[in-house]
Amino acid sequence: MKVRNLKEKMCLWLMISGIFVLAMAQKAEAARSGIKEVKPGTVYSQYDLDSDGIADTFKAVVTMGSKTAKKSIESTEETGTLRIYINNDVVFEQTRNEYPYWQLSLITLQNGRTFVDIESTVGSDDDCMHGLYAMRNGQLESICDFQEPYSKYGNYYHVTIKKVSGNSLIADAGAQFFTTGITHWTMKFQYMICKCQERHESFERTADSFKIRYKTMPVKNKWTAGKKLKAYKKAGARKAVYTVKKGETVKINRVVFKKNKVYFQIKNRKGKTGYIPCARKYKYKQDFKEAMFAG
Within its chain, how far is the Cα of 70 from the centroid? Predict the structure, then answer.
């Protein structure tokens, strides 16, 4: 193309510059790490969800009382369905009864990888389902189940991602354990990728033992045994190192996860450390008198 005069040259230069600046702005936006809360019905177009270097369109839609393709779930006014669209294709669908509600976020790491954080709870504020999802083979697939360690040991459990730090996630966590009642702690998840043929991605806890965060709990670190309890040398060990008598007070310093089982690190009045397993069901005769239960 032959440019006839200076004015045409200037116009052409401005067009090229504008395209370049726009492309750089979109690239910078897509690469910015952090947490973006998703509002149902809103279209988000600055995130690369399938890692092909091109920004995708993302939209979440929640419908109550809608019919579902799942024959196992009868559709009523209490039934809710979440559908997620990426580039106008349905890549995720979840249907639940009992007036469910959802909380969603787009989580972008420092390396530019974006994941979808999906948490759902029924109207009674329990039966939480929470996981982190990645685009694979045209669908959102779960790569981290945040609820897995707690479901057998308590209720009203949650993991809330509060911060992205590099390629790691910092989360506030809490559970109403059958042993201690309402319990809070903080934990970190590290992004991992297996360099195999399928490039398997996951998020793994950076530790198995976490300090209990009493500042945000309704109890202090002074627990009175409601019955006789055996304290073991290690989490999951069979050898008891001492016995906590009924009425004796101890400190519960840490919550421990080992092979998807829950334990607590305790210290008796003599300063001796031991570990007790978390109860797997609620008992009227509680392990500790200070355990508080909501609902």
Answer: 26
**Contact between residue 41 and residue 104 where contact means Cβ atoms under 8 Å apart:** no
Extract the tokens encoding 117. Answer: 């954080």
Q: In whole angstroms, what is the distance from residue 258 CA to residue 265 CA?
A: 12
| Residue that the structure tokens 């045409």 belong to | 8
Q: Which two tokens stand for residue 209?
A: 């033992």
Q: To which residue do tokens 């007070």 refer? A: 249
Spatial distance between the Cα atoms of 84 and 88, rounded to a whole number of angstroms: 9
Beta bridge partners of 256: 209, 263
Kindly give the residue spans of alpha helices, DSSP state H, lying in 120-277.
none
Spatial distance between the Cα atoms of 44 and 106, rounded to a whole number of angstroms: 10
Q: What is the pLDDT of residues 220-270, one digit of tens each?
A: 999 999 999 999 999 999 999 999 999 999 999 999 999 889 999 999 999
The structure tokens listed for 211 are 């300090």
Rounded Cα distance between 236 and 262, Å, is 9
Enter the pTM of the model.
Answer: 0.82
pLDDT in tens, 27-54: 434 448 899 999 999 999 999 999 899 9
C-beta separation of 104 from 118 below 8 A: yes
Query: Residue 3 and residue 140: Cα distance in Å, rounded?
Result: 49
> Is residue 24 within a helix (H) or strand (E), and if so which, with residue range?
helix 6-31
Other CB atoms within a 10 A radius of the CB of residue 18 amount to: 10
Burial class, 98, CB count within 10 angstroms (exposed 0-12 / middle 13-18 / buried 19+): middle
The tokens of 80 are what? 């809710």
User: How many whole angstroms separate alpha carbon 75 and alpha carbon 52?
Assistant: 37
Residues ≥6 apart with Cβ < 8 Å to 99: 64, 78, 80, 122, 123
